[in-house]
Amino acid sequence: MISPHTSTTSRSLARDSNMELLRIVAMIFVLVVHACGASFGAPAKMKIVEAPLSVIVELFTESIVIVCVNLFVLLSGWYGIKAKKNSLLKLLFQVFFFTIVGFSIYKIVITSGIQYSARLSDLPVSALLFNILLVDFWDYWFVKSYLLLFILSPMLNAFVEHVAREQFKTLLINFFIFQTAYGWLFEGVDHIAKGYSTISFIGLYLLARYVKIYRPRIAHFNKYHDLLIYLFCTLMTTGFAVVMLKVGNKDWAQAAFYYCSPLVVIASLYLVLFFSKIKIRSRFINTIAVSAFAVYLFHCQSQLFHYYKMFISQWYNNSNIIVFLSYTILFIIAVFIASVLLDKVRIICWNALSKHIVNKVS
């Protein structure tokens, strides 16, 4: 299974809706994380002195949703990626589709006079695709990191299938000790990249596989205890960031929200465990979840992401808190719905073209 989207619509409809609901929640969290970055900005010591309650609420909000990326990768590990040619082509087609759609919408917007940034605005679509997919890491960074995880997944699955449980456990312990030390505490290596990397994705993927297959003691709590552990970790993340701001260490306050932070990893795992113990069967949820990854591809498209941040930032700076929250919530809902509807068009196009594309590649 590919976490960003399932291999076929019919297959998705047969899945457990509890985990598909988590996929939707994770994507809403992504939208909120980007809204937080656009409005609150990086935490500052002076701000927490002047308005401590406001800063604490902002940091707690970010702590709640910062698990978003880890959730997607853990979901891949929960089910295991099936690295099939058709799945890979479908993922790439979805990326190309939303790159072109986003670029077209951007052209319409700037033609209407709502200019925010000229970045890449004069590039042809072919050059834009080259920049987004091959040159600039931060354009669709998740796609690039996930794509390598997809390529490596047959090897990872073979390892999981044949390794002894104790060796598997030892590997995970050593991996997360290394990641915490070199990727979070000291940032002594570049390849962890604060969790924005395939290396971190591999650790999360294997962690989810181990928990799903062996059900260790850490997974035996009831679902409400899982939820409490998730909330406790978010409170600890918030508290850590607040303390670091108060002592004037802005870098450590930001490090609290790295994807490779041990608190963020633990919170992500226990939110997955919480949803895994809920029993829901809903065709509607599964249908929406098929298109969840489209929300990321649409609003993070290179040009449109500027507007997403711009609108939210303007509301935050120029409106009272009620107006800001109202506009932002409605905007997030609108972006989510628009992305899902556009993805249904993408699915129709893929169904019409898939046989031809697969045969050509073959």
Q: Gyration radius, to the nearest Å?
A: 21 Å
Mean pLDDT over the residues: 86
**What would the principal axes of the Cα set say about the shape?**
globular
N-to-C order of helices and strands: HHHHHHHHHHHHHHHHH
In helices, the fraction of residues equals over 70%
What does this structure look like?
The chain is an all-alpha fold and 362 residues long. 77% of the residues lie in helices and 0% in strands. The longest helix is centred in the C-terminal third of the chain and has 41 residues, at 321-361.
Question: What is the fold's blueprint, element by element?
Answer:
Elements: H1 9-13, H2 17-39, H3 45-50, H4 52-65, H5 68-79, H6 85-111, H7 125-135, H8 141-162, H9 165-185, H10 198-214, H11 223-246, H12 250-255, H13 262-276, H14 283-290, H15 292-299, H16 302-318, H17 321-361
Helix pairs in contact: 2-4, 2-5, 2-14, 2-15, 2-16, 4-11, 5-10, 5-13, 6-7, 6-15, 6-17, 8-10, 9-10, 11-13, 15-17, 16-17
Task: Give a quick rundown of the structure.
By secondary structure, the protein is mostly helical.
